[in-house]
What we know:
Blueprint: E1 7-11, E2 17-22, E3 27-30, E4 35-38, E5 42-48, H1 57-70, E6 76-82, E7 88-93, E8 98-104, E9 111-114, E10 119-123, E11 127-132, H2 136-141, E12 147-152, E13 156-162, E14 165-170, E15 175-178, E16 183-187, E17 191-196, H3 200-205, E18 211-216, E19 219-224, H4 228-240, H5 252-257
Antiparallel strand pairs: 1-2, 2-7, 3-6, 3-10, 4-7, 5-6, 8-13, 9-12, 9-16, 10-13, 11-12, 14-19, 15-18, 16-19, 17-18
Amino acid sequence: MNNHEIDYRILGEEMQYVEVELDPNETAIAEPGAFMMMDDGIAMQTMFGDGSQQQGGLLGKLFSAGKRLLVGESLFMTAFTNTGMGKRKVSFASPYPGKIIPLDLYRLGGKIICQKDAFLCAAKGVQISIEFQRKLGTGLFGGEGFIMEKLEGDGMAFLHAGGHVFERELQPGELIKIDTGCIVGFTAGVDYDIQFVGGIKNTLFGGEGLFFATLRGPGRVWIQSLPISRLASRILAYGVGSRREEGSILGGLGNLLDGDGR
């Protein structure tokens, strides 16, 4: 294996974190802000790009870091290396309620395509890059744009997604239709495209958007029940819009009774 081999365990329910166990000289990499805690004897270093072994010199590092800007990520990542003699642990926390997904890239064909903000952390050597959507319609209407994130290597990587997350195995030719925001990731053999919902009533009043994402097997797909974009839009609408009192005849008086006097 080219990537560092790390042991791990995932703890928690709604707000999970992953505890990574590092042998001497082993390294884990993570997004800035994902760090939670670590044992004494682990050195933390900020670096350009993902620190993968595929990078070559300063130009390679700058190119790798620049690609991360295209997917809305930071230029920098953080490496955590066990500089001690025994095993040490470092933990990374999820940024919002949901689940952490462990991915053994060696067993998954060495490549995963995922939504742009899904990556949490990985073993050193995993390459975090970009995946262009070659189809015009998929790029324009697929929810994730023309660029998605790509994880390559043979080590462990960890994604995070909102709500409940489940895995589905697609057989050759098997097709599922899914809300574009509910896709967390999929293996390289899955064909990703979009499909128009169709129907005037569906288009004008359906409230589900104009397009489905279509995923055709063979391969594995990871799906989330609550995309962070959907949660954020509901919170924003609740905060800035007029408040509805479901099932209440009190109307504005109900706001006074429960402490909201606006």
